[in-house]
Write a structure and sequence with these properties.
heterodimer, A: about 300 residues, alpha/beta, Rossmann fold, 4-stranded parallel sheet, two-stranded antiparallel ribbon, 7 helices, 6 strands, about 30% helix, globular, B: about 400 residues, mainly beta, Neuraminidase, Methylamine Dehydrogenase, Chain H, 2 domains, 29 strands, about 50% strand
């Protein structure tokens, strides 16, 4: 089913302060405990070659067959996505619209706060790249300053509905009536945007999630921002329907999907935190898989866009 | 030379306006069933100077405010309104497309605008007189009366960007203030001596601005402009002896500070709450009404609007009942005995502005009676607001 290969171990230097990120699976706000936690050793899992075969141009004008894996096969999708022609169009449109080719954004909940997701790449003494992964330094440098920030699109209690509501926006930064998503895109003008809002709670349906996600994706695309969707490690809903919905949206809009679920399958407890048996929180190992997987995804998409 | 160009353009535009090419009022009432559409602004032709001597419209005690709604990624002006605090009656005094900039210190005239056309007008919206056709209508407030009502300071759209200017009430005597490249977007306050406090920045549309900090321009010193580092949203006390401002505290959140008018003797407030919503001086300058917002560090949700009055003579703080909603704002009544508080709340998929009166003696917070002020699928907000008694 999956074809992972562990290619490298990157040792992250200890984080002086890491936060034990806690997403609460209800809408009520809960403070993040200020627990000091040393950073674990990071293991990076590389991507198998995407299953989409190279097509030979047909001699006559015939529709190109869509050989992408279907959304219901999301577990087999590659971990690191490639840049589709559609995503390249969005990127180029964004550059024309004035988006910053050196900026990316994150929209997400506690799994995406800077302490847990990619923040270390703005802290030069917190990571070491081995020879094989030195190429990532280019992406680290290019997007410098956008890793160790939550911007206006990340808060512990955000979900797909919250980022569309002005009631959740930061009044110090956002315009009156602006929601966190609009605010983040206006302020940062990113070219790429990770969207990780997959938390499930009792009563939430995949249909509701899909409706909100469509609004988020379409807003990003309309502003020339390439949305990067992600699967989640857990299956709290029980039937994997949220991940399948995420894949369905990525398929339909032909935008990148980072298959984080697949990336953590080789980790103990499939990346879930055994000390917090809520079936949702990911382990420290999974944090590092997320950070390095996010970096590899960003690097891959950015290089492809810049090259073309 | 530059001022000459502006003045020439202004003159031409005024002449055109006098020929029928001037502003046309949009008389259609906004779709607000609960507001009495007075439509008092008639489609009169603006003139440079009034004919005859129209009688000032009697005032009384009223709250004047501009109303705006978020539309797409910009804003649309919904008109200028007058709230009678005695009976909570609201009347519309300028129609959709118009906004309120300022009320003169003596409470006798308004500054209102329709896009780039800036007018002075009586308190019911009548008697409009053009001030400028090149008004820069992007920031929160781009025009203000000077302290004695003898002139107007406003931001003019110049050839190479916005320019701070001063004029007579009829738009004549235009004089450029500030330094080249100032890029003012909002006027924050005007001192008795003529110093102008303003916000530097850039705007991509009405209300869609990036703020870069407060500056002070001193006309008496050849218009030199000085940055007021770390200070924002400056408001002078009524007698001009103190100044209140917003600053970013150690946690990166907005907080309230006060200082003497020369920025000595700075005092940082340590009021509870996460963010500074708004602040307003009492008429006697001895107290400040302060609205603080609670925003969860975890969820990001703004969960409450906390209302305080600070005695600036001794630092005593009194917290009053909390009001709901976001973007809480506050005004002191002219007699200093009441506060008007308003904020925007979400009910289902609609938004509504709530007005409350707070009686400072009893501490009773009472919601404005009557029908909804505004209940809309778009996010409504008040722009500039003033509680005056003339």
């Amino acid at each position: 089913m999956k074809n992972n290969r562990i290619v490298e171990i990157i040792t992250a230097l200890s984080l002086a302060t890491a936060f034990l990120a806690g997403c609460k699976v209800v809408a009520e706000p809960t403070p993040i405990p200020d627990t000091e936690t040393p950073a674990p050793t990071a293991t990076i899992t590389n991507t198998p070659v995407p299953p989409t075969p190279t097509l030979t141009p047909a001699p006559t004008a015939t529709p190109t067959p869509d050989l992408r894996l279907k959304p219901e096969q999301w577990q087999d999708w590659p971990i690191i996505p490639t840049l589709s022609p559609r995503a390249l169009d969005i990127y180029r449109q964004g550059i024309k619209m004035g988006n910053d080719p050196k900026a990316f954004s994150k929209v997400g909940d506690c799994q995406s706060i800077k302490e847990a997701f990619m923040g270390l790449f703005d802290l030069k003494d917190r990571y070491v790249l081995t020879e094989e992964h030195k190429k990532f330094q280019d992406a680290i440098d290019n997007f410098s300053g956008h890793y160790n920030t939550d911007g206006e699109g990340v808060k512990g209690g955000f979900n797909a509905a919250a980022v569309l509501s002005p009631m959740w926006a930061n009044p110090d930064v956002c315009l009156p009536g602006e929601n966190p998503l609009e605010c983040e895109i206006r302020v940062t003008k990113p070219t790429f945007m990770f969207i990780r809002l997959e938390v499930w709670w009792d009563g939430r349906t995949a249909d509701q999630y899909e409706a909100y996600m469509r609004r988020i994706i379409e807003y990003a695309i309309a502003h020339g921002v390439v949305p990067i969707l992600a699967t989640k490690a857990d299956n709290l809903e029980g039937d994997g329907s949220l991940n399948e919905t995420t894949a369905k949206l990525a398929y339909e809009y032909d935008i990148p999907l980072w298959n984080f679920w697949l990336a953590v399958q080789d980790l103990p407890h499939h990346g879930l935190d055994p000390n917090r048996p809520d079936g949702f929180h990911i382990s420290y190992d999974a944090w590092n898989v997320a950070s390095f997987g996010g970096l590899e995804t960003l690097d891959t998409l950015w290089r492809a866009a810049a090259r073309k | 030379m530059r001022i000459y160009q502006y003045a020439s353009t202004l003159l031409i535009l005024v002449l055109l306006a006098a020929c029928g090419g001037g502003a046309t009022d949009k008389t259609a009432a906004p779709n607000l069933s609960t507001i009495q559409p007075e439509n008092a602004v008639s489609p009169e032709t603006p003139t440079l100077a009034p004919t005859g001597t129209p009688s000032p419209v009697s005032g009384g005690e009223f709250v004047y405010y501009g109303l705006r709604e978020r539309l797409g990624e910009g804003y649309a002006d919904l008109g200028v309104f007058r709230l009678d605090p005695k009976n909570s009656e609201i009347k519309q005094i300028a129609p959709e497309g118009w906004n309120l900039q300022d009320v003169s210190t003596d409470g006798s005239r308004l500054l209102i605008n329709q896009g780039s056309q800036l007018y002075s007008a009586y308190l019911d919206g009548s008697g409009k007189r053009i001030v400028s056709e090149l008004f820069y209508d992007y920031g929160a407030r781009g025009a203000a009366w000077n302290s004695d009502g003898s002139g107007i300071v406003f931001i003019l759209s110049g050839d190479s960007g916005p320019v701070l200017v001063r004029s007579n009430p009829d738009g004549s005597g235009l004089e450029e203030l500030g330094s080249p490249g100032d890029s003012p977007i909002e006027i924050e306050d005007i001192a008795t001596g003529g110093d102008v406090f303003w916000q530097k920045g850039t705007c991509s549309g009405q209300g869609v601005c990036t703020r870069e900090g407060s500056y002070r321009t001193t006309p008496a010193e050849a218009g030199s402009s000085q940055p007021l580092k770390g200070l924002d949203r400056l408001k002078l006390s009524p007698d001009g002896s103190r100044i209140a401002y917003s600053y970013e505290n150690d946690q990166g959140k907005s907080s309230l500070g006060t200082a003497a008018s020369d920025f000595s003797s700075k005092i940082a407030s340590s009021l509870p709450g996460d963010l500074l919503g708004d602040f307003s001086w009492s008429p006697d300058g001895n107290r400040m009404a302060v609205v603080r917002l609670d925003r969860s560090d975890y969820s990001g949700k703004v969960s409450g609007t906390r209302n305080f009055v600070v005695d600036t003579t001794n630092g005593a703080v009194k917290e009053y009942a909390e009001s709901e909603g976001i973007l809480g704002r506050v005004l002191f009544s002219p007699d200093g005995n009441k506060l008007l508080l308003w904020s925007t709340v979400q009910i289902g998929d609609r938004y509504k502005i709530l007005f409350h009166f707070l009686d400072l003696a009893s501490g009773i917070l009472s919601q404005l009676p009557g029908p909804d002020i505004l209940n809309s699928a778009s996010f409504p907000l008040l722009t500039n607001s003033y509680w005056v008694n003339n």
